[in-house]
């Protein structure tokens, strides 16, 4: 029984599409893990916030009077959105 060449071509295109999609999904997962976005929380502790801002923990603690944060029972929390906004507002042009 002969197979329609158009069917073969369509099947190959579908396989290529699925392979490309899998590669993109794998890349997106790896990137999310690297950026620590997989936990789903917009809040970071001091070490995570320092890493996110690419500053030392010491610098961040010394500048708490400037950097937006929340303090609950002595623990500091930083919002990614608030840090992004603060960094944008304080950007040198």
Give a quick summary of the entry.
The chain has helices spanning 5-34, 46-53, 57-62, 80-89; strands spanning 43-44, 70-72, 75-79. It starts with a helix and ends with a helix.
3D structure, described in words:
- The chain is mainly alpha-helical and 93 residues long.
- The protein folds into two domains: 1-39; 43-89, no CATH class.
- It contains four helices and three strands; from the N terminus they run H-E-H-H-E-E-H.
- Strands 1-3-2 form a three-stranded antiparallel beta sheet.
- The radius of gyration is 23 Å and the shape is elongated.
- The N and C termini lie far apart (70 Å).
Lay out the secondary structure:
Blueprint (H helix, E strand, L loop, with lengths): L4 H30 L8 E2 L1 H8 L3 H6 L7 E3 L2 E5 H10 L4
Antiparallel strand pairs: 1-3, 2-3
Number of separate helices: 4
Q: Beta fraction of the residues?
A: 5-15%
Shape: elongated
Helix % is: 55-70%
Key features?
4 helices; mainly alpha; 58% helix; single chain; 3-stranded antiparallel β-sheet; 93 residues
